[in-house]
Amino acid sequence: MNGFSNLAKSKLGLLSKKQSKLYAERMAICQDCEFKTALGRCGKCGCVLTAKTKCDECKCPVDKW
After folding, report:
1. Three-state SS for 59?
2. Cβ partners under 8 Å of residue 56, min gap 6
3. How big is the chain by its Cα radius of gyration, in Å?
4. Cα separation of 56 and 64, whole Å?
5. Phi then psi for 41, rounded to 5 degrees?
6. Rounded distance between C-alpha atoms, residue 35 and residue 46, angstroms
7. Would you say 54 and 4 are in contact if contact means Cβ atoms under 8 Å apart?
8. Digit-coded pLDDT (tens) for 5-64
9. Using an 8 Å Cβ cutoff, are 56 and 7 in contact?
């Protein structure tokens, strides 16, 4: 991957259609999650959801994705 993370790729608009779809699916799950904070963070792990959902290696702390 030439050292680029999906977060960096997303900022540059370089995510593939598959990655973009996965990100959108994860964000939809997080939007409805009871642990999502008003500031867009995960209430379980504290991560910023817009970043975490774009990370290939990351997982939901309550196994929703």
Report:
1. coil
2. 6
3. 12
4. 15
5. -115, 160
6. 10
7. no
8. 665 655 555 667 788 899 999 999 999 999 999 999 999 999 999 999 988 889 999 999
9. no
Tokens of 32: 């409805």
- Burial environment of residue 31 by CB neighbours within 10 A (0 to 12, 13 to 18, 19 or more): exposed
Asked if 58 and 11 touch (Cβ cutoff 8 Å), the reply is: no
- Report the distance separating Cα 47 and Cα 24, nearest Å: 17
> Residue 54 is which amino acid?
K
Say if residues 9 and 19 touch (Cβ distance below 8 Å). Answer: yes
* Residue 10 phi, psi dihedral angles, 5° rounding: -65, -35
